[in-house]
Amino acid sequence: MPSKDDTVQVSSPKEAGQATKHPALAMLRGAVVAAVVVGVNAAAVSAVAAGVEGLWGALLGLLMVMIFSGAGLFALHLARHTSPTVQLGVAMASYTGRIAIFGGLLALALNSDSLARNVNLTALGVSAMVVVMGWLAGEIWAWSRLRIPIYDLDHEVNP
């Protein structure tokens, strides 16, 4: 009969206390799910309220938010093995670059007659704002469930 010490412990990847390996990707997953749910609902409401142009506007708003917000989390994921100072620099550069690109695209969109004819810009703006709120809620929800140790578990403390 095996003793208590002879039992083999099998550790599962879902074991409690295990740290999340890629927090930015976990946050990205949570944010994408929330954004898609909110965006699809916004597209349905926009289609009913403004027709096909409203549908295209809402879908374009969803796409813009997912690309620009996702790029920021992906940049942080790529910088995960660097120092906190470099990570902060990557986050700030990513944010600044995304805002500059977004501003340029917004200027082009506001001067585009074909976009104004085929897309309801009000639906685009409202949808983008609603999807951003959903994205942030999903990101916060995912962050609150991450397992990030507050101390180094690999080093033994000597008394």
Mean pLDDT across the residues is 84
Q: Considering DSSP H and I runs of 4 or more, what fraction of the residues is helical? A: over 70%
N- to C-terminal separation? 37 Å
Count of DSSP E strands? 0
- Structurally, the number of domains stands at 1
Structural write-up:
With 159 residues, this protein is mainly alpha-helical. The protein has one domain. It has helices at 23-78, 84-110, 113-118, 121-144. The longest helix is centred in the N-terminal third of the chain and has 56 residues, at 23-78. The two termini are 37 Å apart.
Short description:
The chain is mainly α. About 70% of the residues lie in helices and about 0% in strands. It is built from four helices and no strands.
Record the SSE blueprint.
Blueprint: H1 23-78, H2 84-110, H3 113-118, H4 121-144
Helix pairs in contact: 1-2, 1-4
What attributes does this structure have?
single chain; mainly alpha; flat
